Amino acid sequence: MIARFPLMARLATMARLPLIGRLIGRRPKSGEDGSIVVEGARKATGGKGQARVVMTMAVFFGIYAAIAGRLVYLGFQNPDLSGGPQSRVTASRPDIVDRNGEVLATDIKTASLFAEPRRIVDADEAIEKLSTVLPEIDYEQTYRKLKSGAGFVWLQRQLTPKQQADIMQLGIPGFGFRTEKRRFYPSGETSSYIVGLTNIDNQGISGMEKYIDTQGLTDLQASGLAVARDLKPVQLSIDLRVQNVVRDEIFAGMERYRAIAAGAVVLNVKTGEVLAMASVPDFDPNNPYNAQDKDRLNRMSAGLYEMGSTFKSFTTAMALDSGKVTMNSRFDASRPIRIGNQTINDFHGKGRVLSVPEVFIYSSNIGSAKEAEAVGIDGHREFLYRLGILEKMQTELPEVARPTEPKVWKQVNSITIAFGHGVSTTPLQTAVGCAALMNGGYLIEPTFLTRTQEQAMSVAKKVVSDKTSESMRYLYALNAEKGSGRNARVPGYRVGGKTGTAEKVVNGRYSKDKNFNAFVAAFPMDDPQYIVLTIADEPKPEKPGMGATAASNAGVMAANIIRRSASMLGVKPDFSHENGATLVSYQ
């Protein structure tokens, strides 16, 4: 076949010559087939370069694919919170001021210490240095944080400037500071229960601080709109001057009478504004290490007590307002009342028939029980609800207790409640109810924010008649002149009021030597403007041989508060009645 195609045979022979030459050791002559060898070398070299480019591209593509895959994987994982709290700036809060513009709470800048554990070389050395500035630091807890390998952990929040400077001088690698905001309370313990507290993140957790958060501040903070310059100060109804007087007097009274606690409130009867309210023991909101102790309780709004004979104000007002009893009515208090296995006696019984004014000024349990009997069980319960005594009080302060009462009211319950045993309510609610008896019969829910009289009347409820209110003002004044309220009198201010000495329940029985004492005062009695209610929990006799009833402790504290604060409240003394008849007689 090759013979038939001579050209093909020649080409095949030429192609075999180089291979044969190499096999027999003969190099081809110059010009025989050199062009074919050079072309083959070029093709071999070009193929290797192209392969290297392809391999390089493949390596880079693999690296980027691995990074992208890792990012996608991490995006679907839950964040590791074990490394400590997230680093963020605390939000601003508005200032809190009293009715005269005095600052009660404000934001200040402070430094907080954090660490980056991944940059900590020697955790033991770091803690040893840090403890020279912060000796109270927990070694084990801090060690675990520094060895966690996290990117950020808090070590100490809200340092003093000196602490920050001292730590900076230590030069510990991996430590840093963040500027945060914290709350500062210039008045300290004075208004701690009213103003309240914030937590480490500057969020309100009690008192008016917590109330402010519920009014939209939390939403502003979450949205990043809580800018300090745009936040208007919150003005309270509190008068810091009067608040100082109240806190000072109840603290002195607690020590003087060796009571386990004491408290007081000053209330404007025309507007419902709380001008001052305090309870001791209390705490310093700038260093609230003991704020959660069991004896740290705002007893005025969050404490429930049987209020004793102060309840006779409501019993007498109820009887008069029902129309079934008048000021001239008389009740036989010559013999004790026996009902079931209980016997009702008078503490200082007169052993005779008493008029309504005498029932009040002699604080007769028997007479009060018979006033309640005249009204009836249903009417008695309805009247206390009408005055808000048995319902949870509505006000801005979050710490408000719900009163307790018998599940089923029986005759014995109505009788004991008539003189202040058998139901428990808060001292603040008692003050609010008494204010309604003094201001013409209008129940005004208390407020810790400023409010005008017109605003108060728009939400007030008429609960007793004008005549009943007038009668109760007379009885309060009479009791201060001739009854148990004599120790609360203050020259020039015509003070009236009612004592309350209640035996405390201990192990299910009324104790004979542990009392809860209260005194509710109103002044000036010709046109009452303010209610002052004081309490003393388990007071002791001031001196051997002296009594420990409300007249000798709670009444004295009320007088001291009025004496020191009346002029601050704008009440001018009037001595025109001091030497003349001050009371009218009801015929």
TrEMBL record:
Q: Which GO terms describe its molecular function?
A: carboxypeptidase activity; penicillin binding
The segment(s) forming the Penicillin-binding protein dimerisation domain are 89-199
Which Pfam families does the UniProt entry name for this protein? PBP_dimer (PF03717), Transpeptidase (PF00905)
Question: Can you tell me which residues the record assigns to a coiled coil?
Answer: none
Q: Does the keyword Ribonucleoprotein apply?
A: no
User: Main localisation, per the record?
Assistant: membrane
Gene3D superfamilies named in the record: 3.30.450.330, DD-peptidase/beta-lactamase superfamily, Penicillin-binding protein 2a (Domain 2)
Q: Which GO terms describe its biological process?
A: cell wall organization
Any one GO CC term of this protein is: plasma membrane
The record places domain Penicillin-binding protein transpeptidase at 263-547
Which InterPro entries is this protein grouped with? Answer: Beta-lactam/transpept, Beta-lactam/transpept-like, PBP_dimer, PBP_dimer_sf, PCN-bd_Tpept
Q: Where are the transmembrane segments?
A: 53-76
Instruction: Kindly indicate whether the keyword Protease belongs to this entry.
Output: yes
| Location within or outside the cell | Membrane
| Keyword tags | Carboxypeptidase, Hydrolase, Membrane, Protease, Transmembrane, Transmembrane helix
SUPFAM superfamilies xref list: beta-lactamase/transpeptidase-like, Penicillin binding protein dimerisation domain
Q: Which PANTHER family match?
A: PEPTIDOGLYCAN D,D-TRANSPEPTIDASE, PEPTIDOGLYCAN D,D-TRANSPEPTIDASE FTSI
What name does UniProt use for this protein? Penicillin-binding protein
Q: Which organism is it from?
A: Mesorhizobium metallidurans STM 2683
